[in-house]
Amino acid sequence: MNNQGLSTYFKFSNVNWSNMWGATWETLWMTVVSVALVAIFGVLLGLLLYETTGSSNFIIRGLNVLVALFVNVFRSIPFIILIVLLLPVTQTLVGTQIGPKAALPSLIFSAAPFYARLVELAFHEVDGGVVEAAESMGANKWQLIYKVLIPESMPALTSGITVTAISLIGYTAMAGAIGAGGLGQLAYTDGFQAYNNAITFTATIIIVIIVFAFQFLGDFAVRHLDKR
Amino acid sequence: MIEFKNVSKIYRTKSGTVPAVQNVSLKINTDEVFGIIGFSGAGKSTLVRMMNGIEIPTSGELSIDGKQNANLSKKQLREQRRKIGMIFQHFNLLWSRTVLGNIMFPLELTGMNKSERIKKAKHLAELVGLGDRINAYPSQLSGGQKQRVGIARALANDPAILISDEATSALDPQTTDEVLDLLAEIKSRLQLTIVIITHEMHVIRRLADRVAVMEEGRVIEEGTVAKVFTHPEQDLTRKFVNSETDTGPDEDVKPVISELLQKYPEGQLLQLKFHGDQVKMPIVSEMLHQFPDLQLSILQGSVRQLQDGSGSIGSLFVQLVGNEEDIKGALEFLSTMRVETEVYKHE
């Protein structure tokens, strides 16, 4: 580690900007696509958890235990290990082990269970009286879900996906370290391994900006959705 | 017609069985307003939950227009529920929807098309006096306005039955009156059976034709409101009726009462309650004829008329001064005339 003075952070002449924007785009792509897929899978899993909780039916209770186990296991595996663990799965699902696309399975496997728990929690927060009122008006299961549960828990679902998105941005950077591309990989290979602190620093600033942008969007959406 | 035949509902919990409703038999006729009164835990809500099929009776039969909820398929039960409108104590509106959206909710469930839905919901909003607030969210409304939305929503599918489950219990007295006025208007304009669950007797007095009094899961008294008000048989019923009529002396009379109690410590201060025809009978003057040595001073009196004019309830505060035997005799006379008496002591 030579030549590591503080001033190296600001040697922006060392930054290859076209690589930087390319990596930014990859990070954004990984984040947006994985957030979208995590939102879908998370809501489905969360719904499954919510609907199977406290049932008197033996089979449904079994299903609940199974889903809860799946969620808890994937939530507790450290992400960096999960990527390595899922390499064969990734190979089968997307046909490659490198690049932004290859990062998706592990991103989804790690974030969807986390979000599912938040979704389940959000559904349980919906006023029981309102749910019973809808039932007494003759709502069927699906109407109950998409006309009552989801709209009434929208602010919580949104703030949940915001939190999840922000941790996903962190995960994309980690995935970058083993070849997923994006700002994480750029900071690691071109920054750390090439002793180019300006690249690491710039990548950091861009990631912070992305995180702030997601947080702002999330908060903005919650404020507008919440009519309570 | 809603008919309960020996209906019981028993809940099983870890600590044993809880009988919420026991051997209830009731007939609620089509297009009448039927009140069910009782304190919390009396089993009123369980009765409602059985009517809309959320609970199934443990034993006995409950039929609505000849159909038993227990025998319906899930789909049939949902269709049955759409014919029953419900309003709730805590309104249970969707906060995420506007007034119009909330009223449209039950219409969406039946798959009515959008333009018809909007038209009907707007009409209902007008009916409940919220025509100018259709785009407001529930959080922007007062309690009374929220309950109006609840009522409009309950009426959306043109129900044959409207169940009001403690609909005014979370409202202040003035708002309660507004909501009761609206229900009275609906009763006169629309043809539907209304079932009112409440613990407040004045709600029954204002709206109901017949009433059932519930205690510990049983119906302890049942009859027309006029009869139950004027001739309450059970202690609990009397308590409800009295809570509705004057229960104690006015603030203005209180100083006079304590003065009289000091001045005539041997005198008796009584509150007399007259039900029905007793109001029109010369009971007090008859009492004075029988005990001419008694002195009587009247402190306060009032008469309340029932909603349909079928009866009245009178209350009279008097002081009797005289010898002990005469007073005792007078009290006996009142009790043979079936006048309720309550003796007031110094506080």
From TrEMBL, chain A:
Domain of life: Bacteria
Pfam families: BPD_transp_1
A GO CC term assigned to this protein in UniProt: plasma membrane
Gene Ontology BP, a term: D-methionine transmembrane transport
Membrane-topology descriptor: Multi-pass membrane protein
Keyword terms of this UniProt record: Cell membrane, Membrane, Transmembrane, Transmembrane helix, Transport
Protein's UniProt name: ABC superfamily ATP binding cassette transporter, membrane protein
InterPro entries tied to this protein: AA_ABC_Transporter_Permease, MetI-like, MetI-like_sf
Heme keyword on record: no
Membrane-crossing residue ranges in chain numbering: 28-50, 62-86, 156-178, 198-222
Residue stretches making up the ABC transmembrane type-1 domain: 24-218
Family membership noted in the UniProt record: Belongs to the binding-protein-dependent transport system permease family. CysTW subfamily.
Compartments it resides in: Cell membrane
Main subcellular localisation: membrane
